[in-house]
Please model this.
Amino acid sequence: MLMIKRSEYLELLKTAVRRSPITALLGPRQTGKTTLARMFADNKLATFFDLESIPDQRRLQNPELVLGNLEGIVMLDEIQLMPELFGTLRVLVDRPGQKARFIILGSASPEIIRNASETLAGRIEFVDMNGFDLAEVGSSNWESLWMRGGFPRSFLAENEADSLTWREGFIRTFLERDIPQLGIQIPATTMRRFWTMLAHYHAQTWNASELSRAMGLSDKTVRGYLDILSGAFMVRQLQPWYENMSKRQVRAPKIYLRDSGLLHSLLNIDDMHTLLGHPKVGASWEGYVIEQVLQILRPLEVHFWAVHNSAELDLLLFHNGKRYGIEVKFSEAPETTHSMQTALHDLGLSYLWVVYPGMDVYQVDKKISIISLQKIPELIHQL
Model:
């Protein structure tokens, strides 16, 4: 299988470990966190603990004694399975003369971040790791990345059938093993049904009442299901931006399945021909582009903006005190719209880019350009 060296993540990890006694490498399962950590530790003094391993769990029965005697890099994989270790790490890194640097790896973000924030404040740095992005796989592979998603084994599979089989296995394992490991007792069939319904609501504003009625559950219950999938990096809740203006603005988040390959599996889309003829193709394209923008540009703050029954903007980015907009269109030749002009004016945008699936790049207004997906990595120099 082809290997793609993830140089940018290695640099992020290297910088974080140099700056902080504890580094948390977080992201979905099967995105290569363990592989990256082992690559980083290659040719270094390092000790690795897999907290899914019974022998490693036994080795850590007295964690302060075991970890306190180690030097170099100490890696704790799937840290969410032993949250009691957070207190131990705080004690260890506060000791004078501590010689170890700790890397904790996990795939359940809220629990880890909450424990780390409460227990390890000022001692920890976070590195978020995702699946492959366009900058890593090459812009010529954008269609395959869209169809298969960014999970390495899905993207690198020999053919579409193998990729689809891997994704189906991932979904099943996630529902039947990973969620119960987090102490969440929800039947796999119920969560699969909810996840599939979310796929049909992909790129839409969250409406708890509508989903709860469809599933015969309470608003609170479906909100809890959404938070579980968001916390496990499967779903993105893109928060709205609103400010003082006379217009009635949307205040509910938009929901996206973060990996386009998993979205297509849940929608029973098995090849590009089927995708292009599917009613959700535009929504799929929107989510795919948004994830590429967020992974490649890594903006510190990002929102969407919408006014009820009027204008909207898919992404609002903030950089160096300025505001920039990104609109996503699945169209062969997008043009300026009243909605774009309204967003430019009402939000005071410095510039707005419209990302479409074509190859040409052209300007359609003083502050609006149409660009191809392949040009996203170049935007970092224009912000």
About this structure: The first strand starts at residue 22 and ends at 26.
